[in-house]
Amino acid sequence: MSAVSPYAIPIELTNKSRLGEIDLNHVPFGKFFGDHMFVAEYKDGAWHVKGISPFKNVSMSYSISAIHYGQSIFEGMKAYKNSKGEVFLFRPEMNARRMNIGAKRMAMPEVPEELFIEALKTLVWIDREWIPASEDGSLYIRPFLFATDEAIGVRPSSTYQFVIFTSPVGKYYNEPLNVLIETNYFRAVKGGVGYVKASGNYGRSLYPTCLAQEKGYHQVIWTDSETHQYVEESGTMNLMFVLDGKIITPAISDTILSGITRDSIITIARSWNIPVEERKISITEVLEGIEKGTLTEAFGCGTAATIAPIKRIGYQNKDYHISSDYGENSIALKLDRYLKQLRKGLIPDPFGWVHKINP
Ligand code: PLP
Ligand code: COI
Fold this sequence. Notes:
This protein is an alpha+beta fold. The chain contains eight helices and 17 strands.
């Protein structure tokens, strides 16, 4: 690869890779970071590409507005490698677009989609040795955008950084999930920023999630803040239920993140002639379905979580057990297997989602 990409991304390679310090196929989620990172700065109304350089700490003022007023958004995506050494990204343009939808809502500048994709591909290719090729392994990619004005006044920052770094990962969850339906605390409100991957959405979710974890649940299921009757999403995942042989999933709204995994599953399931309904789903419908045996599977879906089967749902001091063993006949397992193969370029891609980045 030439040292300068078509977008003139300056590249400074490390002379001391840290790759030898870890066992790529046995890494805790998100604790180790690839050798390189990408940085672009926004000032005077334009983006200035700083380039790719060794992953490092930086020095910044304690007064930057991202810290104080939360102008900070991020994306989550993955690069995959198969045993032939082919490297793939999955629908990266969707992440670029979603980040820009968020940027608009947060009064931040958009990052040109071509720059986002070019930076991503260049960085991932440089750190391709960091991609675990194991069945559940991948290189998690964290693009993010944050405000850097040094000022106390509450107003949109005039300067920003767009940064990408990577982290080799395996599974996010190692077991089927127990989740608690939450009706006291809310992740998102109508007219708010629930549909944005805004850092603050995650900060505010921690306390209720800790309370649920103290009670033995892995995660909460958020409900709508107006009626507290409808399920929305869970932790870092969208939700899917298999009810009467159909997949039902909460319709996207301004309180729910428009997941790329969710969208992919809906498209794949429909191509398999499995009916999918995107609509409001009440807590009662879910719990009655479990009790009657018509709700046969429930799972979360997301980039980090992949497809995470749900075994137990708690609501008002009662637990509801989903009977599925999520084995060979389950829709969750079929989707999970199919997606894994698709993302690694091991089966034909009828959707045009998989981008091979080998030159
Ligand atoms: N919902 C939330 C709150 C998330 O953080 C995520 C993860 O990114 C998702 C849903 C799933 O989105 P995606 O499939 O694009 O990763
Ligand atoms: C993702 O799935 O990409 C997420 O953003 C989850 C993350 C917060 C670990």
